Amino acid sequence: MSKDKKIYVAGHNGMVGSAIMRRLSEMGYHNIVTRSRQELDLLNQADVHQFFNNAKPDYVFLAAAKVGGIHANNTYRADFIYENLVIETNVIHAAFAAGVQDLMFLGSSCIYPRDCPQPIKEEYLLTGPLEPTNEPYAIAKIAGIKLCESFNRQYGTNYLSVMPTNLYGPQDNFDLETSHVIPALIRKTHEAKVNGDSAVVIWGSGKPMREFLHVDDMASACVFLMERAMERAMKKGIEKGGEKAVKKGVPGALINIGAGEDLTIRELAVIIKQVVGFDGDLVFDSSKPDGTPRKLLDVNKLHDLGWYHQYNLYDGLHNAYEWFVKNWKE
């Protein structure tokens, strides 16, 4: 990517989008286009097309999405499938109509079947049933992947889908009704410490295993792929087509982004307890759902391209907790 090319980051105020913005700025990109939700409603097809026709970006990072943890996904099922389908179809189609050749769609590791072999390879997509608690969200994200693949196949675009593992870090969502596991545990444990509580109650048995990646590592991988490794990532896509196919855009350009290592929710809670400095007990409520038993991504494709994560989990959680203490307001 030329430093002067125009880059549109959709969802720049969210945790993922803001991390991509930080990374682009660090690397000297200055021609970045953003629109807040108040300025551009990505659910409005006409407005999205008008924006692309006027702005004419060269590159697009599609990080805008409706996201949440297991409770939110299972409760607001219609909202999650509808809003994510509309956002991705509006943005991807408008980008294509405006002549954008290079786009990155950010999905989620929940797209893979519930009982996948571990670690999860990209080619395991659509090989089994999804986890029921987040099926609507996963189906919407799978549709986005297939939309990118279809544009590549039919029109020769370079639309790459990346599947991040569970993310955490600055600007995370700490609302207990809609948050993911790390921000929920950080907030619960912090409030228990401040209130002098004797215990923190945690959803589920604590046995499921999860992989976590600091959002700044995710942003680093995204820019790395878009900037220096787009063509090689395409070559290593699910369907390899050689140099000729790469130039035309390779169907099935899908790549995992993760740390390549996991731990149990119980182990995670113990680390967060240490980071926060809470002296009480951890109580696991097994009446609440666990979700997928294990979800570890195979990141060999990304490693083969030369990218590795930098944050270890302990330091990353310290960074996330510091941001929470300084910035979080209900």
Molecular structure report:
The protein is built from twelve helices and 13 strands. The strands form four sheets. It has a six-stranded parallel β-sheet with strand order 2-1-3-4-5-10, sandwiched between helices. The longest helix has 21 residues. About 4% of the residues have low confidence. It has 330 residues and is α/β, with parallel strands linked by helices. α10 crosses α12. Helices cover 44% and strands 15% of the residues.
Q: Characterize the quaternary organization of these chains.
A: single chain
C-alpha end-to-end distance: 39 Å
Strand content: 5-15%
What would you call the structural class?
A: alpha/beta
Order of helix and strand elements from N to C terminus: EHEHEHHEHEEHEEEHHHEEHEEHH
Shape: globular
Arithmetic mean pLDDT: 91
Largest sheet: 6 strands, parallel
Pick out its properties:
three-stranded mixed sheet; alpha/beta; 330 residues
How would the blueprint of this fold be written?
Elements: E1 7-10, H1 15-26, E2 32-33, H2 45-55, E3 59-62, H3 70-75, H4 77-97, E4 102-106, H5 135-155, E5 158-164, E6 166-168, H6 181-195, E7 199-203, E8 209-210, E9 212-214, H7 215-227, H8 230-235, H9 242-248, E10 254-257, E11 263-264, H10 265-276, E12 281-285, E13 294-295, H11 300-305, H12 313-327
Short structural description:
The chain has 330 residues and is of the alpha/beta class. Helix content is 44%, strand content 15%.
